[in-house]
Amino acid sequence: MNFLIDNAWAQAAPAPAGGSMGFIIMMGLFFVIFYFMLIRPQSKRAKEHRTMLAALTSGDEVVTSGGILGRVVDVGENFVTIEVAEGVRLKVQKPQVSSLVPKGTLKAA
After folding, report:
1. H/E run at residue 107
2. Tens of each residue's pLDDT in the chain, 109 residues
3. Which of 10, 63, 70, 84 has the most CB atoms lying inside 10 A of its own CB?
4. Edge-to-edge strand list for the sheet holding 97-101
5. Cβ atoms of residues 92 and 64 within 8 Å
6. What is the phi/psi pair of residue 8, to 5°?
7. Domain boundaries, the chain
8. What pLDDT score does 2 carry?
9. Cα–Cα separations (whole angstroms), residue 63 to 67, 80, 90, 97, 99
10. What are the residues facing 91 on neighbouring strands?
C-alpha cells in the first residue's frame, strides 16, 4: 500500500514577517507608553509625599496609612507624635503619614 502514498518531506520555515527594525520600534513605543502611564505618575506622587512630610508642623491634621486620624503634636527626624483623642498620643513613623486633611476635620469626626 505504500506505493500509493508519497513520502512527506518537511518544508522550510517561512521568512519572518516584518524586520527587526519594526520590532525595535514597537519595543521603544511600548517603553514610552509604560513610562508615561506608570513610572512618571508614581515618581510624581512619591515626590509630593516627600514634600508633604518635610512640611509637617505641629497642629496639622493628618491621616496615617492605617486610617488613624489625628493632630500632629511633635515632629521628629524619623517619628511623628499625633494626638488622636484628648490625652491619647501615638508615635508613628513619618512615612506612615499618608495625607494632610483640612483643619477642623478632627472635630467633625
Report:
1. helix 105-108
2. 566 777 767 677 676 666 788 889 999 999 999 999 999 999 999 999 999 999 999 999 999 999 999 999 999 999 999 999 999 999 999 999 999 999 888 887 6
3. 70
4. 88-93, 79-85, 69-75, 61-64, 97-101
5. yes
6. -95, 125
7. 19-55, 57-109
8. 61
9. 6, 12, 12, 6, 5
10. 81
Whether domain 57-109 has CATH 2.30.30.60:
yes
CB 54 within 8 A of CB 42: no
pLDDT at 76: 92
Q: Which of 73, 44, 60, 65 is nearest to 100 (CA)?
A: 60
DSSP 16-51: PSS-HHHHHHHHHHHHHHHIIIIIHHHHHHHHHHHH
How many Cα atoms sit within 13 Å of 89 on the Cβ side?
10
